[in-house]
Amino acid sequence: MKKALTVGRRTGEGRRFSGEYAADGKAVRLAARAAAGHRCIRCGHPFESGKHGRGEWSPCDEQCSHKGPIRMEIATATKEGARWIGMVSNSTAGEIVAACANVEAQWRILTVHHLDGDKSNDAWWNLLSLCQRCHLEIQGKVDPRIPWLFEHSEWIKPYLGAFFAFHYLGEVLNREEVMARLPELLALEKLTAKD
Q1: d(CA 13, CA 94)
Q2: What's the mean pLDDT when you consider all of the chain?
Q3: DSSP designation for 18
Q4: Contact at 8 Å (CB) between 79 and 98?
Q5: How is 12-62 classified by DSSP, letter by letter?
């Protein structure tokens, strides 16, 4: 009899993703998205559930730092009015919006990623409001238990600082406490990498 394959990266502690959502998990995830201003904390794309149809295409604004896939609305001389065209650009969606164009991004539905992989852990630092594309990229690359060799991006530093405080020091800190001690907390990652 064949064993079922388990998808996901493994660490020394077992499966990377574990736990079950808490009974109030949906409300907690909605609150996490609201706390992020209904935006992806990584690329800045705005998305509020129920306002963008099925979510395949949703409007960008000047805060969007992502690139494609995107489409731009162009005016036509037909009675149907404007139409949308797909595009590839070296510019971010926000830069294109700033140049007076209506731009939409594909599949940037707002989700919540559990940084430590435990879906039952609803600590503020474990709930990252990410669009679908950023979520998939981060989920596949970032495991806070494995030291990262490069400088972390600014958007993730507070979450990692709080994770390190909890994981290595046993301290539960709020965002303000983490920000006040951020360099110290981020240094924990490098110290523990030597073990």
Answers
A1: 41
A2: 84
A3: B
A4: no
A5: TTEESSB----TTHHHHHHHHHHHTTSB-TTT--B--TTSSTTSSEEE--T
Peptide bond into 69 cis (omega under 30): yes
CB of 131 within 8 A of CB of 40? yes
Q: How many CB atoms lie within 10 A of CB 183?
A: 8
Bridging pattern class, strands 57-59 and 70-74: unpaired
What number of other Cβ atoms are within 10 A of residue 126's Cβ? 22
∠ CA 15-145-16, nearest 5°, is: 15
Torsion of CA 137, 139, 140, 144, to 10 degrees: 120
* Contact by Cβ (8 Å): 144, 158: no
Q: Are 95 and 80 in contact (CB under 8 A)?
A: no
* Per-residue model confidence as pLDDT tens digits over 119-178: 999 999 999 999 999 999 999 889 999 998 889 999 999 999 999 999 999 999 999 999
**The model scores a pTM over 0.90:** no
Query: Measured between alpha carbons, how far is residue 189 from residues 26, 42, 123 in Å?
Result: 31, 21, 19
Q: Residue 85: enclosing H or E segment and its boundaries?
A: strand 83-87
Residues 6+ apart with CB under 8 A from 75: 81, 82
117 touches 18 (CB < 8 A):
yes
